[in-house]
Design goal:
The chain is α/β, with parallel strands linked by helices. Helix content is 42%, strand content 14%. It is elongated, with a radius of gyration of 22 Å.
Amino acid sequence: DNKILSDFKENNARFVRIPSVTKESFFGHIFAVRRFFKNEKVDVLHVHDCDNRFFVMIFAKICGVKTRIYHVHSKKYGGTFVNRFVKKIGIRINARLATKCLACSNEAAKYKKIKKCSLLNNCIKAENFQYSDLDRKKIRKMYSIPHDNKVLLYVGRLEKGKNVGYLLDILKCLQIDGNDSYTLIIVGDGSERNNLETKAQGIEGVI
């Protein structure tokens, strides 16, 4: 997100891009991580999941980073058999080399078999997302959505991997085959935005 990046940069944050271990270069990833920890003085490392990118934790340990935090989010890991096997190894390495483990839930810690960790609950206030009839009417009026339309919502990056175009195909089928009327609201931005806007032309009920 460009806005998030600009906000961080305004607060003197510096970004270092490391090649993806799975999508770009395995050895490039390892060498970049090693070079980073050798050249930079790092006091605290905070790793979010990254079960298959455990070289970050390994080189942090080797290069003397004193505070190494492993933060577990998910209670599941998918992928092929090989991917799952590598992730299981990565979890053990990250947990073993970390000086502190955090988990978003007890279920996540239990699933990944991390016994000693602190629970760090999500800071989102659930009451802010409770149903509001007033907000419902306001949004429907703002976007001219009929009162009886069923509203579908997508929030996320507009990239090929998200397959948002398929939602447009589904909406088209619903409009043809269903007895109800639907409105699809797409919130987000990305490299596929122009393609999606072009595809959405002529499909009723897309915002």
